[in-house]
Amino acid sequence: MSAVFITGTGTDVGKTFVAAGLIRCLRNLGQRVNVLKPVASGFDPAAPSGSDPALLLEALGRDVNAAELQRISPWRFRAPVSPDMAAYAEGKAIDFAEVIDFCSSAIAHNTGALLIEGVGGVMVPLDTQHTVLDVMVALQLPVILVAGSYVGTLNHTLCSQDVILRQALDLRAIVVSETVNAGVSLEATLSSLANFTRAALFGLRRQDGDAQNATVFQQLAKIIA
Predict the structure, then answer these.
(1) What is residue 16's predicted lDDT score, i.e. its pLDDT?
(2) pLDDT band (50, 70, 90) for residue 208
(3) Helix H segments across the chain?
(4) Would you say 148 and 179 are in contact if contact means Cβ atoms under 8 Å apart?
(5) pTM beyond cutoff 0.85
(6) Domains of the chain with CATH codes
(7) Nearest CA to 86 among 131, 40, 20, 47?
(8) What is the pLDDT of the chain when averaged over all its residues?
(9) What is the chain's alpha carbon radius of gyration, rounded to the nearest angstrom?
(10) 37 is catalytic
(11) Which of 18, 109, 121, 189 has its CA 20 to 30 A from that of 115?
(12) What residues are paired with 117 via a beta bridge?
């Protein structure tokens, strides 16, 4: 198995939903799997339950405690804004080189599948000079792009696809995670996107346990093998 980077067209589009579902699928298949979410904003240290790092740990079957949170997500910030803003609000700054070293070390020492989940969208700033895209370029991993099915997602998804492909990254799949009460169907969104991408294209219902979702996660597991 290999490492893969999971990014999104923006915040709250379902990156963690996809990562957690893929983790559970791989575990059910008897595969070894680990996950990192190096940078997380909107994290309340007094109430970590329900946060993205906590959901990922739960999918791994691990306890949500300080040591485990630090292990998979060392850069955690309270404000639910871009990482550069969230770090600045706490009088801190994200060291880009340290983020890359952290991920690279995990890739080098991991056995099995390794999922690395980004923060926000492809072009979200980490500091005054680097975005999530710069992390993706530095790591050179296959990419899974997660999008929503809301009105406007076609533009966001195709713009994200464009910047990923311009960097010659391996866009392995686009996953459209259903947006509740979006005003447009998941099927219509997938149909339109299919005209503009050569990446494998999948749709997910935003509910755990959906039989169709299980099939999608199995197909994604094969893609990152």
Answers:
(1) 97
(2) low
(3) 15-28, 52-60, 66-72, 83-89, 96-109, 132-139, 153-166, 186-193, 211-223
(4) yes
(5) yes
(6) 3-223 (3.40.50.300)
(7) 40
(8) 95
(9) 16
(10) yes
(11) 189
(12) 6
